[in-house]
Amino acid sequence: MSEENVLFAKQSDTPPAEEIPAESQSDKYLICVSDSLLYGIDAEQVVEIITDHTITYLPRVPHYVRGIINLRGQLIPIIDMRLRLGKMPEDEHCIMVVNVENNVVGLLVDGVERMADIPRDSILPMPTQNPQKLISGMCSLPEGATMLVLDCSLLLHG
To answer: In the list 9, 42, 52, 151, which could disulfide-bond 136, CB 3.0-4.6 Å?
Structure first.
């Protein structure tokens, strides 16, 4: 075999990009803060972030539903993350509008930090005795902080 053929044989031994194991891939998360904890929400679920919207109170809804907002003609229920996680409400907040199973919902959080690329293999499952049923995993961020992965579908069903 000539040197040229050996060179091509070695190159063909590397797997194509689609065969790279999923463990080495990453997902984008929007990191927000609620009660001094960092929560990551899958960026594909985030529609937009809004501030200074009037929330209209609704009677006879769960205590963690603060009410609704009218966003460009669409009525969106607002879930207070602090109340949903059993904490005290806060006055300073912003609303993250997310699409969960084709339902648009607003999450009231203390603030939005940044977008982060998190390797899939760095996300650890939560312990089985996890008191926070809305958290599906956690990981360490490069600066040393811990991010809890928020399972948005459990916000509606949990």
So the answer is: 151
* Distance separating alpha carbons of residues 29 and 117, to the nearest angstrom: 6
Maximum distance among all alpha carbons in the chain?
Answer: 80
β-pairing verdict for 26-34 and 65-71: unpaired
Question: Within the chain, how many helices (H) and strands (E) appear?
Answer: 3, 11
The span from the CA of 53 to the CA of 95, in Å, is 8
pLDDT tens for residues 134-154? Answer: 888 889 888 889 999 988 888
Is 108:66 a contact under the CB 8 Å cutoff? yes
CA angle, corner 80, sides to 56 and 153, nearest 5? 110
According to DSSP, residue 16 is labeled P
Rounded alpha-carbon distances, angstroms, from residue 7 to 11, 14, 15, 16? 7, 12, 15, 17
pTM: 0.76
